[in-house]
What we know:
15 helices, alpha/beta, Urease, subunit C, domain 1, eight-stranded parallel beta sheet, 21% strand, 413 residues, single chain, binds fe (iii) ion
Amino acid sequence: xxxxxxxxxxxxxxxxxxxxxxxxxxxxxxxxxxxxxxxxxxxxxxxxxxxxxxxxxxxxxxxxxxxxxxxxxxxxxxxxxxxxxxxxxxxxxxxxxxxxxxxxxxxxxxxxxxxxxxxxxxxxxxxxxxxxxxxxxxxxxxxxxxxxxxxxxxxxxxxxxxxxxxxxxxxxxxxxxxxxxxxxxxxxxxxxxxxxxxxxxxxxxxxxxxxxxxxxxxxxxxxxxxxxxxxxxxxxxxxxxxxxxxxxxxxxxxxxxxxxxxxxxxxxxxxxxxxxxxxxxxxxxxxxxxxxxxxxxxxxxxxxxxxxxxxxxxxxxxxxxxxxxxxxxxxxxxxxxxxxxxxxxxxxxxxxxxxxxxxxxxxxxxxxxxxxxxxxxxxxxxxxxxxxxxxxxxxxxxxxxxxxxxxxxxxxx
Length: 413
Ligand code: NIG
Ligand code: FE
């Protein structure tokens, strides 16, 4: 590919000489360079600075791209999605408008179990086509790295089908993808009264099969009343660890039942959702190395209270933002909208929201040293905006797609 010079960048955002996971007041600092250049070598960031410092006698690059005043920033790092699903669930969306709750829909065999029935009817090839379209959609919306979970199979074959589709996405796409096994998303119909039996299926059959094909990087559990208890969550995390899968968990979405504490004890990389947090939960998470990942579009879609971002930031927690793209609680993977919701509904500053959706999202994917900022040696996964007056315009102008072009590994998609 050689070298590529990008000139006339209106704002080059999130430029960092060195990176670390951001917490507290650091989150509000988003280093930027106005009227900047960016030099790429192959798929990596080689150099950057103000246009005035680009000396003509430097090495003439293979190609020059004129950014025409656009904001250029790291592509979004979306560290929590379920984008491999077999079909939409707008019927339940209407049921909820008519008054049913998320928990009632699940108790009637809807929700996750509805998605699981559809999953077990679809072929792997058909599933791949659907998932590929969603991956293309989010990449054109500016996402350059994504985590994808299983969890709509709830049978050995169903879970393997999803994880194999994730592997195929990884093979075909240049987007950076992490894969998570979420067999413990719900108790399937057949095991409604036999929790031990399903946990044994996960630990004794699913996990060895997944490990044999190296299909997952992480293990996830939906730790929630009516789903998996903190004790069950701990057992499943421990079983996953034996196969090298680190935990990243769904906790504190509907109830605070000890998910934060079990996640920290299990050294989870990330604890996600956090709509329902007690003062103790906030304190414990803030004192740990675990990232709290806020999913405001799920809270929005389910009409739940939004995550307590301000309290988490002021108590020093490391937080990230992700889309939760899934058919039941967030049928959108649009990270621009996630960032807008974070600012509008959780009162995050635009700088905080952008840091949480780029650099801290990269750390939540364990890709903090490769992605999420404009740093020499990092991979050139970049988002070019349409002409906009400032960075705050991104969350302000919610509902408009402000992404003009997206570059993955140094190439426009
Ligand atoms: O992250 N809360 C658990 N899992 C998903 C929703 C699953 C579904 O409703 O299909 C979530 O919100
Ligand atoms: Fe989720």
